[in-house]
Specification:
alpha/beta; Rossmann fold; globular
Length: 278
C-alpha cells in the first residue's frame, strides 16, 4: 500500500502500532490532537487533527489506502463530551474514507459494546450489542456505522473488540489480556487480509481463561500467541475474595459495568501507562 493513516497515534496503544505500520505501507501518516508525538520513524509523518472536524479528517485521508482508527476518548465521560470525538468522529472517519476512496477502515472497538453480558456467558462475535456505558454505546454506533457503510457503499471495515490491552493487574485480566505483540498481529491481519467485508473480531490473547469466542472470525488469520496464565499465581494470591454482588466482577465490561453513566470506568482499574517511547 502507498499510505496508511493512524488516528490516536499519541495514545498508549497507538505508540505500539506506529513502527509496525510503517512496514506495511510506503507512508504512514500518524495523527492525534497532541502538539507532537515525539521522534518519527522512517516513513512516518505527523499531522495534528481533530477527528470531530470533518474537513480535517477529509484532508487527512487524502490518498490513503486504509485508515486505522484508534482516536477517541478512551474512558467513560458525560455523553456531551463523548459526542464529538467518539460519535461524530467515527462518522467523519467513515464518511471521509468513502469519499476519498479508501478500501477499508480498521476500527478500535471494545468489549464495552457488549459489556453487560454476564462473565459466565462465553460470547461470540455475533451477540447483539449490550453496552455498559456511553463509551460502549459509541462503540456500538461505530460498529453499526461500519456495517451500514459496507452494505450500502462497499467500504470494508474490521472492528477490533479490544478487551484489556494493558499490563495484567487483576483476576479479570487473566481472561481479557491482549498483549502488545498480539495487538500488532491483530491490526496487521486486519490490514493484510485480502477481503474482509464487514468483520468483528475480539482483541484478546490466547488466554486459558478467555471469555470470548473468535472462531467465527478465523478467516482473518489472527492467531494470538501470548497467554496471561503465566501471571495467574501472583495475581490470584494478591486478589481480594470474589464478590458475586459486584457487577465489575460479574460482567464482561468489568469496572465499566458497575460505574454510573458518565463517570470514569478507568478510575476503578489499575492501568499502567507503559506507552512505547520513541
Amino acid at each position: 500500500m502507498k499510505k496508511i493513516v493512524l488516528t490516536g497515534a499519541g495514545g498508549r496503544l497507538g505508540s505500539y502500532l506506529r513502527e509496525p505500520l510503517t512496514r506495511l505501507a510506503g507512508t504512514l501518516v500518524s495523527s492525534d490532537i497532541a502538539e507532537d508525538i515525539g521522534m518519527l520513524y522512517p516513513g512516518e509523518s505527523y499531522i495534528r487533527a481533530d477527528i470531530a472536524d470533518y474537513d480535517a479528517v477529509h484532508t487527512l485521508l487524502d490518498g490513503a489506502d486504509m485508515v486505522v482508527h484508534f482516536g477517541a476518548i478512551v474512558d467513560e465521560v458525560p455523553f456531551e463530551e463523548m459526542l464529538g470525538p467518539n460519535f461524530l468522529g467515527a462518522y467523519n472517519v467513515w464518511e471521509a474514507a468513502f469519499r476519498q476512496g479508501l478500501k477499508r477502515v480498521v476500527y478500535a472497538s471494545s468489549i464495552h459494546a457488549v459489556g453487560m453480558y454476564p462473565r459466565n456467558e462465553f460470547i461470540g462475535i455475533d451477540v447483539p450489542h449490550r453496552p455498559d456505558t456511553f463509551y460502549g454505546l459509541a462503540k456500538c454506533f461505530a460498529e453499526d456505522l461500519g456495517r451500514m457503510y459496507w452494505e450500502k457503499r462497499q467500504l470494508e471495515s474490521v472492528c477490533l473488540r479490544i478487551l484489556s490491552c494493558a499490563q495484567v493487574t487483576s483476576p479479570r485480566a487473566l481472561g481479557t489480556w491482549l498483549s502488545y505483540d498480539d495487538l500488532i498481529q491483530l491490526v496487521t491481519r486486519a490490514i493484510d487480509t485480502p477481503t474482509t467485508g464487514f468483520s468483528i473480531v475480539y482483541g484478546v490473547s490466547d488466554n486459558d481463561r478467555s471469555p470470548v469466542d473468535n472462531s467465527a472470525a478465523s478467516y482473518l488469520g489472527y492467531r494470538p500467541r501470548d497467554n496471561a496464565e503465566r501471571f495467574a499465581e501472583r495475581i490470584l494470591a494478591e486478589a481480594p475474595p470474589a464478590d458475586t454482588d459486584d457487577l465489575a466482577q460479574m460482567r464482561h465490561g468489568g469496572p465499566f459495568a458497575s460505574t454510573p453513566l458518565g463517570q470514569s470506568g478507568l478510575a476503578g482499574m489499575n492501568i499502567v501507562d507503559d506507552r512505547k517511547k520513541t
